[in-house]
Amino acid sequence: MKKVVITGAAGFLGSHLAKEVVKQGHQVIGLDNFSTGKAENIRELSDSGFFTCIACDVAEEDVRFMPALSGIDEIYHMASPASPKFYQADPFATIRVNTIGTANMLELARRNNAKLVFTSTSEAYGDPEVHPQPEEYRGNVNTWGPRACYDEAKRLGEVFCYEYAHRYGSRVKVARIFNTYSAGLRNDDGRVISNFVTQALNGHDITIYGDGTQTRSFCYVDDTVRGLLLMMERDEANGQLINLGNPVEISVMEVAHLVKSLAQSSSKLTYNPLPQDDPKVRRPVIDKAKALLGWEPFIDLREGLRLTIEAYQAQRP
Question: What are the NAD-dependent epimerase/dehydratase domain coordinates in residue numbering (predicted)?
């Protein structure tokens, strides 16, 4: 049995990962300050006997010296607001968790000779001028705008990972995650899938930002979690940046129509101005994930949305 730390364990992706690691029979210590994570996401885990949650801020230095974190084998550093609504609401905390918090987790891993996966983001590519995006592409990120607190903090987190891998030989892997979704997304977090599904089920107007021609590549959470587990497991991923995402690209307008159809909704489509620095296109090259991990997504968007809509419907009062 391994002793695994998951930061941001009460968040959307962190809680899904925690459930899978516990299911595999390992001990999980979740760290979360509950700034965007929800206690209900991990409530069922608390009864398993294999999960402990510690309320703390991983950007505080004393987290590295917690007795409960001695003898750990693996760290998944996932703590961070992930939607523009939340990371722009508290930009300094977003910067701290992805820079200082990342340095703290890397130091904790080094002291314990533990492996670490850092969840970075496709936002590291900014509004890309190369399409689709391979890991070698250095990106087109605006450092002087409302998204920079997230984009640039993740990029600096990657630099910390690089230095620990090359200076100390730390077994560090960086996952650049592309739009992950499922029913666990907060329905108030402002991301495309959660927005569209919530609006469609409630019969409200479906809000599209821009003209809807901008594209995204959506990956169902089960596929993303499987990719993260493989990254941790495979030594071939040590010291590597790896895209984890679905290479099937779709426009935001097409997503809106698909959600409306699957939800059998009468909602109308409305259009608002596109936010500053919102990427126009997004699609990962996943050749490295295929070669090093033997990973590619299995669940297509139609099936993933059907599962998501059914789960949201079951949660409605």
Answer: 4-245
- Residues designated as active site: 150
Question: What φ, ψ does residue 245 adopt, rounded to 5°?
Answer: -175, 170
Q: What is the pTM of this model?
A: 0.95
Nearest to 195 by CA among 184, 182, 206, 203: 206
Phi and psi angles of residue 2, each rounded to the nearest 5 degrees, phi first: -90, 155
Beta strand segments in the chain, E = 3-7, 27-32, 51-55, 74-77, 115-121, 172-177, 180-181, 206-209, 215-216, 219-220, 240-244, 250-251, 269-272
DSSP for 58-91, written as a single string: TTSGGGGG-GGGTT--EEEE--S--SHHHHHHSH
Q: What are the φ and ψ backbone dihedral angles of 149, each rounded to 5 degrees?
A: -60, -30
d(CA 269, CA 113): 52
What pLDDT, in 10s, does the model give residues 192-224? Answer: 898 999 999 999 999 999 999 999 999 999 999
CA–CA distance, 41 with 129 (Å, rounded to integer): 37
The single-letter DSSP state of residue 182 is: S
Report the C-alpha gap between 97 and 166 in whole angstroms. 22
Which pair of structure tokens corresponds to residue 19?
A: 């459930």
Give the C-alpha separation, 119 to 136, whole Å: 17
Q: Please give the Cα distance from 7 to 14 (Å, whole number).
A: 7
Place domain 192-214+249-281+305-315 in its CATH homologous superfamily: UDP-galactose 4-epimerase, domain 1 (3.90.25.10)
For the chain, the domains span 3-181+218-247+284-299, 192-214+249-281+305-315
pLDDT tens readout for residues 43-79: 999 888 899 999 999 999 999 999 999 999 999 999 9
Answer CATH for 3-181+218-247+284-299 from 3.40.250.10, 3.60.20.10, 3.20.20.80, 3.40.50.720: 3.40.50.720
| 246-268 pLDDT, tens digit each | 999 999 999 999 999 999 999 99
